[in-house]
User: Which sequence fits this backbone?
């Protein structure tokens, strides 16, 4: 049985910064191929896999694309056997309207997941006001699109921003809005699919160091099931991964996506990684206390000594367990006087020593 995701209303209030937790957004994106029915099927598949949210895109080609717009290389190569002639013809087949998104929002929230939408134009933001979305996701190329960022921030929803194509010094404005909206900043590589050597999980660490007050996530464009777990180990507390009905289907994003079964493995691995990462500190855990007590070493007498004896190096050795004066106290203990007699092979305790003058 798949784990029950948290209620969608908890999505932006929950403490996902907790190191033992990780949130996974199943990006359906345009993998619905323009079909509301297929999108609904993918929503249910995401819930079964254990996702906490699904993400869709809201765009209109005439709003987004100028006369000079071009196809990216991956869009040409992954839409065979009939490659689109231009970006508008490609996106026209993958468009969902606000009216289409409303029943998808209802299905998502009924399944206990958050409903996240990516707008691409200022007019799209106005359309989002009529949808009860749980968060806004900004695509990587728009991480520096300040008018779009400022408009989406006015929706008073968490702002989740991917940072593919960006240098670290370009992200201060985006980070400020993320903080204001209780959102997240995602390390991302805008290559579809992203090869192992370019996955750049170190970017998660770089973002955490630059913006320690923010939640940091990883938007995963690799084709592998283990990258999310590795991103969690690097410090990501939110993951985004594409979901499809068929990775071999023609379309711009199918090849970089996981099918439902693979997404389930991906999420399970990420959750195990989060548990194994544990608290972002270094302490002696309760389950270590027994080993600590019996395996650490203490100062121990090499011979029987009477009360009033002043300790010399020949009087002391170091042995287990760690319940006496610690080994690190050896130098400080030399020259001190015994308050009472102590016999050979017994640990030395502070109570055995006369007060220091």
Assistant:
């Amino acid at each position: 049985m798949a784990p029950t995701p948290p209620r969608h209303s908890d999505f932006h209030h929950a403490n996902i910064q907790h190191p033992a937790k990780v949130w996974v957004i199943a990006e359906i994106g345009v993998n619905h191929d323009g079909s509301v029915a297929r999108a609904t099927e993918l929503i249910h598949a995401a819930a079964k896999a254990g996702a906490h949210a699904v993400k869709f895109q809201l765009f209109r080609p005439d709003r987004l694309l100028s006369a000079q717009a071009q196809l990216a290389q991956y869009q040409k190569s992954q839409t065979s056997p009939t490659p689109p002639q231009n970006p508008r013809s490609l996106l026209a087949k993958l468009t969902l309207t606000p009216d289409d998104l409303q029943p998808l929002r209802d299905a998502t929230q009924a399944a206990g997941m958050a409903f996240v939408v990516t707008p691409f134009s200022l007019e799209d933001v106005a359309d989002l006001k009529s949808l009860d979305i749980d968060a806004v996701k900004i695509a990587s190329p728009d991480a520096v699109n300040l008018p779009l960022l400022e408009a989406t921030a006015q929706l008073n929803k968490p702002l989740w921003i991917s940072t593919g194509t960006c240098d670290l010094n370009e992200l201060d404005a985006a980070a400020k809005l993320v903080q204001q909206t209780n959102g997240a900043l995602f390390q991302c590589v805008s290559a579809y699919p992203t090869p192992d050597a370019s996955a750049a999980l170190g970017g998660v660490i770089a973002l955490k160091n630059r913006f320690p007050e923010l939640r940091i996530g990883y938007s995963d464009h690799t084709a592998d099931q283990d990258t999310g777990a590795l991103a969690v180990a690097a410090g990501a507390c939110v993951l985004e991964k594409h979901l499809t009905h068929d990775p071999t289907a023609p379309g711009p994003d199918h090849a970089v996506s996981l099918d439902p079964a693979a997404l389930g493995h991906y999420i399970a691995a990420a959750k195990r990684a989060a548990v194994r990462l544990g608290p972002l500190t270094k302490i002696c855990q309760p389950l270590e206390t027994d080993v600590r007590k019996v395996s650490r070493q203490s100062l121990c007498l090499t011979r029987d000594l009477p009360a009033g004896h002043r300790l010399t190096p020949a009087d002391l050795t170091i042995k287990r367990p760690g319940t006496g004066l610690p080994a690190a106290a050896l130098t400080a203990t030399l020259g001190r006087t015994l308050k009472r007699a102590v016999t050979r092979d017994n640990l030395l305790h502070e109570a055995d020593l006369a007060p220091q003058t």
